[in-house]
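W.,

You were right to be curious about this one. When I first looked at the sequence I had no strong expectations either way, so I just let the prediction run and decided to look at it fresh. Below is the sequence, 282 residues in total, followed by the output.
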Amino acid sequence: MMSLKLQRQKMAQRVLIFTSAALACIICLFPFYYAILTSLRSGQNLFRVGWLPNEMNWGNYVTALMDSGIARSLLNSAIVATLTVGLCLLVSITAAFALARIGFRGRKYLLFTILCVSMFPQIAVLSGMFELVRFMGLYDSLGALVLSYTTFSLPFTIWVLTTFMKAIPTELEEAAIVDGASTWTIISRIFAPIMGPSLVTTGLLAFIGAWNEFMFALTFVISSGKRTVPVAIGMLQGSSQYELPWGTIMASSVIVTLPIVALVLIFQRRIVSGLTHGAVKG
């Protein structure tokens, strides 16, 4: 009798867990699913509520890529996001090494300052960043976006990589020093491979932030050929002020989302590893 009661409790727990997981998946995936449905519609079907595909019109995707300039904006976004990730990881891993391995006065206060800087909203420093971009001659160029995105991504990546690097045994570093390895060799040949999951996790988060950012991209770039994808989608216009090409907008949104989904699926194991137990096992 007792075992039957326990089995019922376990079954009820499993049903509750699976139901909650299914509900969470529906809530998260439904907006993307409906965007795909809308991107395949045309005419009056765009404004009709329907949960199943009733039309397969790929013209919206052709219009988005060929006529609306989304293809060029995709290339711009890819360049900016890739350069941002490269600079962030290069600077962050060296800064994390200094903060985690080198003892100096004020290290804790510096880490706290870095954490506080990451909490500043973008709008609070927009005017200062604008003056800096103009002073450096980067206005209306992709370099302005790389500079601003790197500035905002660095505090988070430095903080996370410092935490992971503190967990690496010091014996590895000491053995490398005995063998005559330089500081850069220790960072690139020992720490970087061990910290692979954390590098992938922070790099992907920095990539997503740079890929989806809108305010800096709208402020620092005015040429249509240099716009990133979020701004290009926001600039899509219809035949009049009150008519927006919703099919093309939804198709563009789906196209923009697909690279992020692909990256998450490719690196999902490393992302989970980086978010859970870090880089050291056992």
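Here's what jumped out at me. The chain has two domains: 2-47, 61-276. And, maybe more interesting for your project: The CA atoms of residues 145 and 216 lie 7 Å apart.

Coffee later to discuss?

I.
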